[in-house]
Fold this sequence. Notes:
By secondary structure, the protein is of the alpha+beta class. The protein contains 1 helix and 3 strands; from the N terminus they run βββα. The chain has 2 domains: 1-28, no CATH class; 31-67. The longest helix has 30 residues, at 35-64. The radius of gyration is 29 Å and the shape is elongated.
Amino acid sequence: MSAAHDIDVDDEYIYVAQVDGLLILEVSTTPESSSLEFLLYLIIILIVVAVIAAISSVVYFKIFRPNKGIKEGT
């Protein structure tokens, strides 16, 4: 793809003038996601974050802070 020299946009198309010709792109819109779909993704993200936090806590307290109540025998 070469550099664009001029760009024009209307309701249906984008026209891009290039050194080697004219590129015509069709304008389209993506469908809006529903609020229910957004809520589902948000819940999934929150669950993943909670699981990661729980695993991190277990690893921290088991590896880096072992039980101090166990005394070694002499």
